[in-house]
Design a protein that fits this description.
- The chain is an alpha/beta fold.
- The chain has 3 domains: 3-74, Winged helix-like DNA-binding domain superfamily/Winged helix DNA-binding domain (Arc Repressor Mutant, subunit A, Orthogonal Bundle), CATH 1.10.10; 95-169 and 276-310, D-Maltodextrin-Binding Protein, domain 2, CATH 3.40.190.10; 171-273, Periplasmic binding protein-like II (D-Maltodextrin-Binding Protein, domain 2), CATH 3.40.190.
- It is 44% helix and 20% strand.
- It contains 13 helices and 12 strands.
- The strands form 3 sheets. Strands 3, 4, 5, 6, 9, 10, 11 and 12 form an 8-stranded mixed beta sheet that branches.
- The longest helix has 26 residues, at 67-92.
Length: 311
């Protein structure tokens, strides 16, 4: 692509293409942007012409990104986010903190929400976006610059060699069951005793799923197939109270907070490798003032010193 073609793809055109990709329709994007449909179509055509690549496939109903389009939109989001952060930081002046914090939150990362709330109280002018998904889907987005940090378990985050891992605090493991569960009547329930009961798992918990699956295999039990799969905490509570199912759970509090009062905790029956609540960052991406301040709050609230190490 020539320098003239590159110059034709300015921020306005980037934002237009990104909005079309989000809306998956020219008409909807035009309404959101306050432009005419023909103006949006013309902008998309100008960008495609400058790139020499088709960004969208036109379908009978709406449009979808081509492979080149997915690459362009992912990179454009990074550029636009960096520009927005730059403008916010400069406009705020030296004594005010503003900008945006984009967090990826894996299943165990929800235990860091106290730190997020503390940060929001201290820096109300910072916009916060969270993406709740599996470590497996969040880590590539971190590497691509779509999010700033991923909070989750060291067991999985540490597998990504291109990320820098900061360990915060240990995660304690137990299997939760209702207080009158048959297992609570056993003096020392064995691992096989526990695994014989139905299992509840959230939708995306790769480290826990992998670790639990190995325990099933060790006892030559049928392949792990969770009986209940849900992220809804109220439904999980109801299932625990209404059935014989158990929930493998990790928590930074040895007493498991209020959950330890509501349910019985089987702490030593199922053998699990050590896990730590951790966060990962992409070392090749610049750390803004907002990111540095949030990392400080994470460490402060969770009561641990960051021990950064290559993942």
């Amino acid at each position: 692509m020539t320098s003239a073609s590159a110059a034709a793809i300015d921020l306005r055109r980037m934002r237009t293409v990104v909005e079309v990709a989000r809306a998956q329709a020219i008409t909807t994007a035009a309404q959101t942007l306050g432009l005419t449909q023909s103006a949006v179509s013309r902008t998309v055509a100008e960008v495609e012409g400058a790139l020499g690549q088709r960004l969208f496939d036109r379908l009978p109903r709406g449009i979808e990104l081509t492979e080149a389009g997915r690459l362009f939109v992912a990179r454009a989001k990074r550029v636009l986010a960096d520009v927005d952060d730059l403008v916010s930081e400069i406009s705020a002046g030296p004594n005010r903190v503003s900008g945006r914090l984009r967090l990826g939150v894996a299943a165990t990362g929800t235990h860091a929400m106290g730190a997020l709330l503390a940060f929001a109280r201290r820096h109300p002018e910072v916009a916060i976006e969270t993406v709740h998904a599996s470590d497996q889907s969040l880590c590539p987005r971190l590497l691509h610059g779509e999010i700033d940090l991923v909070i989750g378990s060291s067991s999985y985050l540490g597998r990504w060699r291109d990320l820098e891992l900061v360990t915060l605090t240990p995660l304690y493991f137990a299997c939760m069951v209702r207080r009158d569960h048959p297992l609570t009547a056993l003096p020392r329930p064995s691992e096989r005793d526990v695994l014989a009961y139905p299992l509840i798992l959230p939708e995306s918990v790769e480290p826990t799923y992998s670790d639990i699956a190995q325990r099933y295999a060790r006892h030559a039990l049928p392949r792990l197939r969770p009986h209940y799969i849900t992220n809804n905490i109220e439904l999980i509570r109801a299932l625990l109270n209404a059935t014989d199912a158990f929930l493998p759970m990790m928590h930074p509090d040895p007493g498991f907070g209020c959950l330890g009062e509501e349910f019985a905790l089987l702490r030593d029956a199922v053998q699990m490798p050590p896990h730590h609540l951790s966060y990962a960052r992409a070392p090749h991406r610049p750390r803004t003032q907002v990111i540095e301040l949030f990392e400080h709050v994470l460490v402060e609230v969770l009561g641990a010193r960051p021990a950064a190490a290559a993942g």
